[in-house]
Design brief:
single chain, 117 residues, mainly alpha, Arc Repressor Mutant, subunit A, 12% strand
Length: 117
């Protein structure tokens, strides 16, 4: 997958262009419970959230890995705002590529959360 590569010394992070986002990468990103939780929280908020907002029961390095998988799959966009790394769901782009997929996954995740308590 070709991603936009940031300039040397830049704090910009590489993201796949819209036309490079692949269904199998998105489904892989959503297959992990921690990543699904991140996506659900981003969708519920509707805006940018700092990585430090997420209280995941994993180490910081594992959390970083999960955000990288989400970013490299095209699920989220991340930017630095000062010292905070902010994440936002690429909702419009994903819905344009895979109509109804994200909404269906989020609804299924909500039903599962209720079912499992």
């Amino acid at each position: 997958m070709r991603t936009a590569v940031p300039a040397a010394g830049s704090r910009d992070l590489p993201h796949p262009a819209r036309e490079e986002i692949r269904l199998e990468s998105v489904l892989h990103a959503l297959s992990d419970p921690m990543r699904l939780q991140i996506v659900c929280e981003l969708a519920a908020d509707g805006g940018e959230l700092a990585c430090s907002h997420f209280d995941l029961p994993v180490t910081k390095s594992t959390t970083t890995h999960h955000f990288r998988v989400l970013r490299e799959s095209g699920m989220i966009r991340q930017v630095y705002r000062g010292t905070a790394k902010m994440s936002v769901l690429r909702n419009d782009e994903l819905d344009g590529l895979f109509p109804g997929l994200l909404g269906s996954v989020l609804a299924a995740a909500a039903r599962q959360a209720v079912r499992l308590g």
